[in-house]
Amino acid sequence: MGWIQRVLRLPPFPRGCHLITERVEQALPELANVRTGLLHLFIQHTSAAISINENADSDVPRDLAAALDRVAPENAPYLHTCEGPDDMPAHVKSSLVGSSLSIPIGDGRLLLGTWQGIYLCEFRNHGGTRQLVLTLWGE
Length: 139
Known about the structure:
Blueprint: E1 2-10, E2 16-19, H1 21-27, E3 36-43, E4 48-54, H2 59-71, H3 87-97, E5 100-106, E6 109-110, E7 116-122, E8 130-138
């Protein structure tokens, strides 16, 4: 099969952590043909992030967002304030959570654990559309 790369454009999401596993899978119908491979995801933004975490309990994304708000509060004495009070904390959170993921593929599916899902972590109050670069390699 070789390499496939495409951009997944996500609609605006409210601030918080949002499960996007199905959107990623739908953007890559070629996954079904991959016996062994790797999917690399990269978010092209500095105020949002992507993460793998529990997908079964709806309290998890709310608790994650609340914990990150405590780590990087809006009222901290930041120097970079020209884009609003939620911008610099968003950069801090993005650095902590990360901008890329690599997920193994086997027998036509993402080899996520039973309770794992892919999350878009939106750290701005009005972040707008987000773009993920999806790079798939497999045979």
